[in-house]
Prior knowledge:
- By secondary structure, this protein is of the alpha/beta class.
- It has one domain (19-67, 113-253): Alpha-Beta Barrel (TIM Barrel).
- Helix content is 31%, strand content 16%.
- The chain has helices at residues 34-42, 74-78, 91-94, 115-125, 140-154, 169-178, 195-201, 216-224, 237-246; strands at 19-21, 47-54, 60-62, 128-133, 163-166, 184-188, 206-210, 228-232, 250-253.
- The chain has a nine-stranded mixed beta sheet with strand order 1-9-8-7-6-5-4-2-3.
- Helix 4 runs parallel beside helix 5 and helix 5 (140-154) crosses helix 6.
- The radius of gyration is 18 Å and the shape is globular.
- The two termini are 31 Å apart.
Amino acid sequence: MTQPTPQPISFDHWPYPRWVAHRGAGKLAPENTLAAFREGARHGYRMFECDVKLSADEVPFLLHDDTLTRTSNGPQLLGAPASTVGGEHAWGALSQLDAGSWHSRAFAGEPLPTLENIAHFCRANGHALNIEIKPTTGLERRTGEVVAQHAARLWQGAAVAPLLTSFETEALEGARDTAPDLPRGLLLDTLWTGWLETALMLGCVAIVCNHELWDRSSVTQARSAGFRMLSYTVNDAWAVQRLLDLGTDGIITDRVDLFPPA
Length: 262
């Protein structure tokens, strides 16, 4: 079978839908689990955002927080005095955790997924993915390298590659140097001095901002430099309309139940 030939991502060619489901399905299911991805897909979403870090034995898996405390039974199952930092445990131990009961009884027993699990789901169903590289402190560059290496392998031959984003410039440098053909985006929670120049240096195709940071000035700067513009985490209709009026390109939302993806 002939593999599709991916088009280079540029300002003129943007393969991603406008609407992106945050951590799978926002708050309707336990975040960063396959159950959340299925729920987001049930609401018609075709692109998802998730957070990926490394286990101690360098398996990329989904977890937003540094620790396992909020979204799993890690502290109970691993037992004191074991660390609650997710990246300090091998995947064998992490794979046994319950990442669903904290949300509701309906999801009891839902496991932490690996990036490979998510890749198979997305590719089998034709979904796009935004992978936020979320390093354990001190492993910024290494996390970018390993996540990019796995993403390049898992999406080999895919028509649409995953978008790799991070707040950590070292992680994006590692991703760029490991898999330069994978598209990258710089995440921003403030417009710190040099943000535009840094995104250019990293070879990014997108800027992903806290939605409040986009205004006529920042949009003009980003657009003039050739970047696409995405926003997180947008849960109110007034904010959606403001971003549409500004001409931004992507909206990451928890409210997959409120905003039907166009």
